[in-house]
Amino acid sequence: MSAPHVQILTIPSGYRGTLAPLAQIADLVRRGAKDFAVRRQAVAILRNGGVRAKDYLGEIKALFQWVQSHIRYTRDTFRVELLHSPRRMLELRAGDCDDMAVLLGAVLESVGHPVRLVITGRDPNRPELFSHIYVEAWHRDRWIALDATMPHPMGWAPVTPVKRIVSLRRNPAMPIDHPDLLGAVETVPERLHDFLRSLRGEAIAPRDGRVKMVWELLRSRRLLGRDPWVKQVLRRIWELGLRARPRPRTHARLVQAFHQWGLLPSQRGTSRGPLGPNRPGRPVRLRPLTPHPRPIPRPPAAAAGKPRT
């Protein structure tokens, strides 16, 4: 066993104190995925588990269950935030939620499974206070929650009022229509963008999970009762679904409400009038500032025939 490399850093207070360890965790996952020792351990887990080649969901499940059963949950040193590299976690076999997230994220990415991190908090009145972190893996156009600190199966995730996504990289195959955050905290769930994109004109089946996600997001932030129209529309879509047809007015009104409530980034470069933000439309012909002079009216032509006396 090689001598451990220890790096001591000072964590700032407040919200910056949350972002600093997150950047380190994301970096440990990315570097650990390229470590040959980590990849060798991941392949050994798959072989010993009898996972067949190209059974990608089986690979995710096997790696998740191995971390869940072989890594002991152990709290950090008192008043010290410890972060172990994936290789050190394979040697120590103990750590807290961030250490398990680092190891699980690294072994998954070492065999080709993209991951992202999820941080959660318990107090809705303090949305910048986080207390837990876990991993989500990408498989067949969806993210699968993997919380190795809990004795629950793959796909289980804690229900908390505060939730943020930490993206590690951009994958063109993933339907995300906003830029990747590269380790920064994402304040808007990606499925919200997917829901709004489908609302423009695609069909939405009843009981769609994205509608439930939007409903829970509004309820957790105490926004569900702010606009009765939004609540009614979401409930109708959840119960009846929508057929494929253009819905520009419904889409525009929901987007405007989400912008006002802070769920979407603020619109820059758009002016607002009495009807909302200006949108491109038909060109308007403007009159010149200096009007053309009016033509002098001609006198009426004389009537043919004998002049009057």
Describe the structure concisely.
38% of the residues lie in helices and 11% in strands. With 309 residues, it is of the alpha+beta class.
Give structural notes.
By secondary structure, the protein is an alpha+beta fold. It has 2 domains: 10-187, C8orf32 fold; 189-266, no CATH class. It has helices at residues 15-33, 36-48, 56-70, 86-92, 97-110, 190-199, 209-220, 228-240, 248-260, and strands spanning 72-73, 94-95, 115-121, 132-138, 143-146, 162-167, 185-186, 272-273, 276-277. Strands 5-4-3-6-7 form a 5-stranded antiparallel beta sheet, with helices on one face. Helix 4 (86-92) packs across helix 5 and helix 6 (190-199) packs across helix 7 (209-220). Mean pLDDT is 78; it is low at 170-187 and 267-294.
Unreliable runs: 170-187, 267-294
**Major pleated sheet:** 5 strands, antiparallel
Tell me the name of the CATH class of the largest domain.
Answer: Alpha Beta
Mean pLDDT figure: 78
Q: How far apart are the termini?
A: 131 Å
What is the topology?
Elements lengths: L14 H19 L2 H13 L7 H15 L1 E2 L12 H7 L1 E2 L1 H14 L4 E7 L10 E7 L4 E4 L15 E6 L17 E2 L3 H10 L9 H12 L7 H13 L7 H13 L11 E2 L2 E2 L32
Helix pairs in contact: 1-5, 2-5, 3-5, 4-5, 6-7, 7-8
Give keywords.
single chain, 309 residues, alpha+beta, C8orf32 fold, 2 domains, 5-stranded antiparallel β-sheet, two-stranded parallel sheet, 11% strand, globular
